[in-house]
Specification:
Layout (H helix, E strand, L loop, with lengths): L1 H13 L16 E3 L10 H5 L20 E3 L24 H19 L1
Antiparallel strand pairs: 1-2
Length: 115
């Protein structure tokens, strides 16, 4: 499902069409984020004095991320927590919420198991 989503939206995006799930006005905190929009924080000054054996291998300064992502809050929110933005659900993927919650839940359970 997710591969189909990104294939469709990527095609639309690169053809110059509006992708309804991309929300730069909400700082990409809901829905899709295209490639080369996000970049890691720049900690080059902090790492400059590190010993060569302890320096991170990532590029300094950081480059823009070459992958798309979809921001999705996993599962139910506590009753006393009102999210700043509503979840974005692609209209042509009716099973999106259930699938994303299931996948996210499996990822969390896997991390809990390892921890």
């Amino acid at each position: 499902m997710v591969e189909s989503y990104f294939a469709k939206r990527g095609h639309d995006f690169y053809d110059g069409k509006k992708v309804p799930e991309i929300h730069p006005e909400k700082h990409y905190q809901v829905g899709a984020t295209p490639e080369y929009v996000e970049r890691a924080r720049d900690h080059c000054d902090k790492f400059a004095h590190y010993d060569e054996n302890n320096k991170p291998l990532s590029e300094c300064p950081p480059t823009f991320d070459a992958k798309w992502r979809f921001f999705w809050n996993i599962g139910e929110r506590p009753a006393d927590h009102k999210p700043e933005h509503e979840q974005v659900v692609p209209e042509d993927f009716p099973t999106w919420p259930e699938t994303m919650d299931k996948w996210g839940g499996m990822m969390l359970r896997g991390c809990e198991t390892v921890a």
